[in-house]
Amino acid sequence: MRDTPDSIPGIRPGPSRDPLGDEALWQALLRREPLPGRFYGVTTQGVVCRFGCPARTPLRRHARFFSSVAEAGGEGFRPCLRCDPAGERAAIHAAAVRGACAAIEAAVEAGEAVPSLVALAGRAGYARHHFLRLFRDVAGVTPHAFAAALRARRLGEALACGGRVADAVAEAGIGSESRVYEDGARMLGMTPGAARRGGAGEVIRVAFGTGPLGLVMVGMTARGVCAIELGEDEAALRASLAARFPQARIEPADEGGRAAVARVLGWVEEPHGALDLPLDLRGTAFQRRVWEALRTIPVGETTDYAALAGSLGLPRGARAVARACAGNGVALAVPCHRVVGRDGTLRGYRWGLARKAALLARERGGAA
Prior knowledge:
DNA Methylphosphotriester Repair Domain, flat, Arc Repressor Mutant, subunit A, 15 helices, Double Stranded RNA Binding Domain, disordered N terminus
């Protein structure tokens, strides 16, 4: 005979006290829609789940709604093993991945061989394939890619100090100078020589304009727009650009640069369609992957960091995606302002939350 709500010890059927209302919560449960801060209990199983749990949807009469796992626990429900509503298993997984990351980083810093996947999994107490999936879900990349990113960072730092490419390659533990020349643009966002020179030999032409968002600076190399910065002061914007390209020669823009500023200001006035400019994006392979994904978000729409990470095949890569958004130096053309918190609130924006709110309001047709 199937269990009834009264047959589960400690569980009392009854109406929800959630201010959203039972019907709204039930419809969200049917849609498997994630609702931060809301949970549902299944009286026949005695478990409490996150909204969006992959488990089978219960019958309406067997569902209870709660504002916290503690509230559900007080009424006799235990956490679901699949969706881990209390986050206990997620915390264990995160700790295991942090330990693996620390081991990889220590090996890279010491110039030693990076521990194998088998060794990392064994140290964490997981099977190899399970740990690979776990690491990718938590860190957003594989252990191999994580190690490669650390080496690329060390290489970039060594080159930025002006050292010889061969010495920087040895210090980063990459092993082959030829490989760096072949894959340098993918690893660093530029050639090894350009990274070593800190932009030396490059000319960046800048132009300024003033619009609804305040002062706008556009910087252009021979390849395209490398910077769109928003601010209050020309000197501060120039300093920001110089910090990114310390050895580049920064000059006033030619006619093409001034035209680019005009296009940016015109787009802010009427943000319809993509801001189509030739771009010279400088970043790691992962950053550029995120930036290209940002450019596919339509005007007037938003997404959240977790959803963006999921679209890239990184279901637990929200933090890595957020860091890539923060590293974007080309405002508007790479629309990181269209990424918000899962609950719809505005989260960090390099050029200020007030500008982010104004941009979104303009894109939605409202007054800024």
